[in-house]
Amino acid sequence: TQLLEQSPQFLSIQEGENLTVYCNSSSVFSSLQWYRQEPGEGPVLLVTVVTGGEVKKLKRLTFQFGDARKDSSLHITAAQTGDTGLYLCAGRNQAGTALIFGKGTTLSVSS
Amino acid sequence: NAGVMQNPRHLVRRRGQEARLRCSPMKGHSHVYWYRQLPEEGLKFMVYLQKENIIDESGMPKERFSAEFPKEGPSILRIQQVVRGDSAAYFCASSPTRQGNNLNTEAFFGQGTRLTVV
């Protein structure tokens, strides 16, 4: 069974701090996606990483895909209150028929 | 280009009633996925459909739940004889037609339907 473990489960920080959240699996994924979800809304796709070792930057967010394509990380520099939300990683199952999601990291950034 | 549209946004049903959740995918998307989300449990895959076909329903409960994606009209997730445990947020996602063996096609989510069973 393919599982994605995310850590930490909860993270509460002050504005301006840096943080990293992790997504790990014992399975290899052809790609991993990161989503951000706000309360009462659906997940919004942030990025897809495809190549082992790949690093993608989206303003203050840096996404990395592990060399073995089993793990990924999301680093946020100088967090802002608008970064508050649930961060989910997801990968396709082996059949390609569904996205498997981790349970997410709930980030709270206070001013 | 409108995003994935789900309705209703909120649905209240009494135990034993039926719940119908609708999802219109993004224009040009022919693949629809349904997920259920409970607090602190993450998004759980339920079913994957293409027009008029169920491709993967491995996440669907064996009883009371069904899904369809007709040639015309939205995809419907139907829950018969609802129970309190069915209360959750149900999300629909869509993706464009897969090209070849590309399994990296991204999925775009709707805003969800929050079902409350009283």
Short précis:
Chain A is an all-beta fold and 111 residues long.
What do these coordinates show?
The complex is a heterodimer of chains A (111) and B (118). Chain A is mainly beta and 111 residues long. Chain A is built from no helices and eleven strands. In chain A, strands 2, 4, 5, 9, 10 and 11 form a six-stranded mixed sheet that branches. In chain A, strand 6 and strand 7 form a beta hairpin. Chain B is 0% helix and 52% strand. In chain B, strands 2, 4, 5, 6, 9, 10 and 11 form a seven-stranded mixed sheet that branches. The relative contact order of chain B is 0.33. The mean pLDDT of chain B is 91. Chains A and B meet through strand 5, strand 9 and strand 10 of A and strand 5 and strand 10 of B.
List the helices and strands and how they pair.
The complex is a heterodimer of chains A (111) and B (118).
Chain A: E1 5-7, E2 10-14, E3 19-24, E4 32-37, E5 44-49, E6 55-58, E7 61-65, E8 71-76, E9 85-92, E10 99-101, E11 105-110
Parallel strand pairs in A: 2-11
Antiparallel strand pairs in A: 1-3, 3-8, 4-5, 4-9, 6-7, 7-8, 9-10, 9-11
Chain B: E1 5-7, E2 10-13, E3 19-24, E4 29-38, E5 42-50, E6 53-56, E7 65-68, E8 75-79, E9 88-96, E10 108-109, E11 113-117
Parallel strand pairs in B: 2-11
Antiparallel strand pairs in B: 1-3, 3-8, 4-5, 4-9, 5-6, 7-8, 9-10, 9-11
Mean pLDDT of chain A: 94
Assess the beta-strand content of chain B as a share of residues: over 45%
What quaternary form is this? Answer: heterodimer
Structural class category of chain B: mainly beta
Run of helices and strands of chain A: EEEEEEEEEEE
Largest sheet geometry of chain A: 6 strands, mixed
Strand content of chain A is: over 45%
Report the major sheet of chain B. 7 strands, mixed
Distance between the termini of chain B: 37 Å
| Helix and strand element order of chain B | EEEEEEEEEEE
Distance between the termini of chain A: 41 Å
Give the overall shape of chain A.
globular
Helix content of chain A: under 10%
Which whole number gives the mean pLDDT of chain B? Answer: 91
Number of helices of chain B: 0
Unreliable spans of chain A are: none
Find the structural class of chain A using helix and strand composition: mainly beta
DSSP strand tally of chain A? 11
Shape descriptor of chain B reads globular
DSSP summary: helix tally of chain A: 0
